[in-house]
Each structure stands twice: as C-alpha cells, then as structure tokens.
Write a structure and sequence with these properties.
The protein is an all-alpha fold. The chain has a single domain, classed as Arc Repressor Mutant, subunit A, CATH 1.10.10. Helix 1 packs across helix 3 and helix 2 crosses helix 3. The longest helix has 14 residues. The model has no long low-confidence stretch (mean pLDDT 93).
C-alpha cells in the first residue's frame, strides 16, 4: 500500500522528525516531504501524523522499536 519512500518517511515521523528534518535526512525538498506525508495520510485515512503512525502500526507496516 505504501511505497518504500513513504515507509521511510513514516519511520522518521514516528521517531519525531519534522517535515524539515525528514527532508534533510532523506535529501528531499521540504515540499516533497510534505507531499509524501499528505499521500501517507490519504492512503491510511488519517487526519494527523500521529493517526497515520498509529494506523501504520495497526496494519503492521511499522515494526520494531523507535530510533534513539
């Protein structure tokens, strides 16, 4: 359902990264990071970043513990 890049973005968001930090970490523009988050929220039927993370966990898309 989610692309590999969207999963990368969502993992970073789960770890508390902002759109700016996601963009820097993945070498993207901030707009591209925002677009990925918008697509993730749409695909997971989530209104917020937190809801997207929770739904991804529920669906088994996010595994393991958070990064330090």
């Amino acid at each position: 359902m989610l692309s590999n890049r969207e999963l990368q973005v969502l993992e970073l968001v789960r770890n508390g990264y902002s759109n700016v930090a996601v963009a820097e970490r993945l070498n993207l523009s901030v707009m591209t990071a925002k677009n990925h988050m918008q697509n993730i929220r749409r695909k997971l039927n989530a209104r917020t970043r937190g809801q997207a993370v929770a739904e991804a966990r529920r669906q088994g898309l996010l595994q393991g513990s958070q990064e330090e």
